Amino acid sequence: MLYLIGIGLSDPEDVTVRGLELIRSSARVFLDAYTSILSVGKDRLEEFYGRPVELADRDLVEQGDVILAAAQSADVSFLVVGDPLGATTHADLAMRARQRGVAYRVVHNASVLTAVASCGLQLYTFGETVSVPFWDAVSRPSSFLDKLLGNWERNLHTLCLLDIRVREPTMESLLRGRPEFEPPRFMSCSVAAEQLLALLAEVSAAEDNADLLADSDAAELRNRLNRRKQLPPPERLLTVGLARLGSPDERIAACSLADMASRDLGPPLHSLVVPAPRLHPVEAEFLRQFADTEADAALVDASAAER
Amino acid sequence: MLYLIGIGLSDPEDVTVRGLELIRSSARVFLDAYTSILSVGKDRLEEFYGRPVELADRDLVEQGDVILAAAQSADVSFLVVGDPLGATTHADLAMRARQRGVAYRVVHNASVLTAVASCGLQLYTFGETVSVPFWDAVSRPSSFLDKLLGNWERNLHTLCLLDIRVREPTMESLLRGRPEFEPPRFMSCSVAAEQLLALLAEVSAAEDNADLLADSDAAELRNRLNRRKQLPPPERLLTVGLARLGSPDERIAACSLADMASRDLGPPLHSLVVPAPRLHPVEAEFLRQFADTEADAALVDASAAER
Asked: Family per UniProt (chains A, B) (predicted)?
């Protein structure tokens, strides 16, 4: 039997009682070590579980043979931070288990997708979740802005999941053919805010040069600009930063997008929320406790008042 | 200190290790007994926790005085099925705690909002969640259909949370002024499907009588009809029923809306999903395992093929 066990958001004690029992009675215990990451290391997990934990990288999970072969003859636990089927890769693992005649069972747990309610915004008024990827020299994906605007137009909140890069091979090691890894990187709310600011600025700058574009490109640009203009300027666009949700040193901050780019919310993991333009009064009242300054509080109040 | 503790989806063992420790060290333990319900009773919880559990009805929670007074001088646990801040009422309790100078802390857990991924649909492509309320002689709310169509147009899945009526006073007891309660009622997937079918049929019937309506009503009706026409007929509209998610006798069924109205998925709790019109191939492949008949499987395949 293959148990897909969610281990929650931050500490070893976040596993469920059922999950812990299954881990302790499994022949082997694997930990997904690349789609997400706990704020604690493997050592603390092993100590708490009283079992050795094998780190599973992308190759091991996506090929799946080691895990599935083990699960064919014994109970195997595959541990996932958050809830187990949040990432497509794990649905894929469950599917391949089934194809090989290995039964699987899911043990659910908390996920950032619901823990985000800690900021006081109602889960029922969140729209589509978006992912904000790290930009680099060759790639600056921006489709998350279009999805965010789609939610905004319908007065829905947007949860932005921020990029995580774990076990990325270095360029040198790829050339040498012997894998060495970059240190793990986690996008902070300030970096996400910077990318969003850059994107909004770029679209504005492009407007000035629209005459130079082919007609079809210009039409698309005008369309994006018109949608973008619904957003208030960055100094008046409310955002909520969430850091280390569910842990004792959880930190939540409500401030403008412009300010978020320079807020330090401490160590990972971070998530960013762009609330709907008009908040329910209860949402605004709850969110206000996370406003650090008078200006932040005024911004929250304005979102409620515009209802 | 007030601990808002999620106890997960179905069994006593679904509490987290941290949650269990806090419950056992609390002076009093309250259980939210009206926004949701575990499939097990208070007795099994008390046995498992080794602590007496006090049922908190809506009045007790919304006034909050008993709970907050207790939390002012000692540790108090307030238990909520699923994740603690999913329902507005609990955000309200946390806010009033804070106003009275009582610190609160949230212990997260699994929620149907993420456990729904067990059917294989990706959480990132769910739109706004909707609630389907029981209809009665005086009220037939239908706004959930408009939200569902909004998701459908954007190729997003819709999770429909189905109504729960716990501790509803009987009409007779209201007249006598002494509260007696109706037996708890839980909406099944088949009842939700019936209401949805009725709603779609009503809109069609109304079309024939549009000439009789005032101009403004007729315009609104035409608008609703046009949006509704995007949906395939009920025999070809794929739906997914989910029953007792996370428990050992979990049941998931993928079939047409027309068929769902006569499927018996067993005891509560149920949730219904209307998948987006075009599924990712991995989603369709996963979902196919929950198709009971050839016709069901063909319907799932068609959703993938239309991509």
From this structure: Belongs to the diphthine synthase family.
Which of A:198-227 have CB within 8 Å of B?
none
CA-to-CA dists, residue B255 to B113, B127, B159, B243, B299, angstroms: 21, 21, 15, 14, 7
When CB atoms are compared, the residue of B12, B118, B122 closest to A106 is B118
How many other CB atoms are found less than 10 A from the CB of residue B184?
Answer: 14
| φ, ψ dihedrals at A188, nearest 5° | -90, 165
Rounded Cα distance, B179 and B162, in Å? 25
Q: How far apart are CA A286 and CA A297, in angstroms?
A: 11
Q: Do B14 and A14 touch (CB under 8 A)?
A: no
User: Which pLDDT value is given to residue B179?
Assistant: 73
pLDDT digits (tens, 9 = 90+) for B107-142: 999 999 999 999 999 999 999 999 999 998 888 998
Decide which of 3.40.50.720, 3.40.1010.10, 3.30.9.10, 3.50.50.60 is the CATH code for A2-110: 3.40.1010.10
The reply to whether residue B128 touches residue A123, judged by beta carbons under 8 angstroms, is no
Domain boundaries, chain A: 2-110, 113-305
Nearest residue in chain B measured CA to CA from A150: B154
The full DSSP string for B47-71 is HHHTS--EEE-HHHHHH-HHHHHHH
CB spacing of A124 vs B127 below 8 angstroms: no
User: What's the pLDDT tens digit per position in B155-197?
Assistant: 999 999 999 887 677 777 777 777 777 777 899 999 999 999 9
DSSP B232: P
Give chain B positions within 8 Å (CB) of A86: 114, 117, 123
Topology of domain A113-305 in CATH is 3.30.950
- Positions of chain A with pLDDT under 70: 35-39, 64, 167, 207-214, 306-307
Using one digit for the tens of pLDDT, what is the confidence trace for B97-108?
999 999 999 999
More confident residue, B173 or B266: B266
Judging contacts by C-beta atoms under 8 Å, the chain A residues touching residue B107 are 246
Contact B88 A282 (CB under 8 A): yes
Q: What proportion of chain B, given as a percentage, has pLDDT over 90?
A: 66
**CA-to-CA distance for A300 and A295, rounded, in angstroms?**
9
Q: Give CA A227 to chain center in angstroms.
A: 25
Per-residue pLDDT reduced to its tens digit, A171-181: 777 777 777 77
Pairing of strands B158-162, B130-132: parallel
Q: Measured between CA atoms, how close is A4 to chain B, in angstroms? A: 11
The interface pTM score, or ipTM, of the predicted complex is 0.91
Q: Is A18 on the interface with B (CB under 8 A)?
A: yes
Query: Average pLDDT of B44-63?
Result: 88
Residue A108 near residue B9 (C-beta atoms within 8 A) = yes
Q: Cβ contact (<8 Å) for A156 and B124?
A: no
Of residues A86, A128, A286, nearest to B114 (C-beta): A86
Residues 227-256 of A with CB under 8 A from B: 245-246
Q: Which chain B positions have a beta carbon within 8 Å of A154's beta carbon?
A: 128, 150
End-to-end CA distance of chain A: 52
Beta bridge partners of A241: A253, A272
Q: Is the pLDDT of residue B218 over 90?
A: no
Between chains, do B110 and A85 touch, taking CB under 8 Å as contact? no
